[in-house]
Amino acid sequence: MRHISDEKDVYQPALIIGIIFIYFKFIYYLRDKIYPATLIFVIFILNFLLTVYFFYWLSKIFNKNKNELKISNFIFTFIYSLFPTLIWFLSTSILYIFLPPPRTFSLMGKGFSILFIAYSLSLLIWKLILVYLAVRFSSKQNFFNILTMIIYYLVWFVPYSIFLYQFKLFRIPFI
């Protein structure tokens, strides 16, 4: 992540964003077609930019050397922190095709549930580590400042996620 935060190649984030766009087009055919896939993708981009600017703005407040912070560092690191999210959403979509709900309370059903929860938790832990490192190397802050920024983010993000859920835009925000 330290190396990624200093990256200048714009093709890498463009490729990742392109893959996410393809995912949104793919998932459009699996879920209820309430909103077009392109609109959901645009809302994802807006969420992503809000997240990046949120941490950039807080880093400017916490940082003594405001000139060394670059928005591009935040964009690069946060785009790479989307990998666990993309993997989880893609794998759950594929599982939805091959093993749709409802699942049974049999031994196989319970075993699958335990395996799926372990898989989901491992991707969540990977995601949390990547987000921490993204903020760490982009903002150049210490642990407690980063923890404070993440808590501020959650105070804003949880109600915002509920708002998105109420409008049936995202059940789980893609961020």
Q: What layout of secondary structure does this protein have?
A:
Blueprint: H1 2-5, H2 11-28, H3 37-62, H4 71-80, H5 83-98, H6 107-139, H7 143-166
Helix pairs in contact: 2-3, 2-5, 3-4, 3-7, 4-6, 5-6, 6-7
Description:
The chain has helices spanning 2-5, 11-28, 37-62, 71-80, 83-98, 107-139, 143-166. By secondary structure, the chain is mainly α. The relative contact order is 0.15. The model has no long low-confidence stretch (mean pLDDT 88).
The rounded distance between the terminal residues' Cα atoms is 18 Å
Helix content: over 70%
Helix/strand structural class: mainly alpha
Shape: globular
Count of β-strands: 0
Mean pLDDT: 88
Descriptive terms for the model:
single chain; 75% helix; 0% strand; 175 residues; globular; mainly alpha
Provide a concise account of the structure shown:
The chain is mainly alpha-helical and 175 residues long.
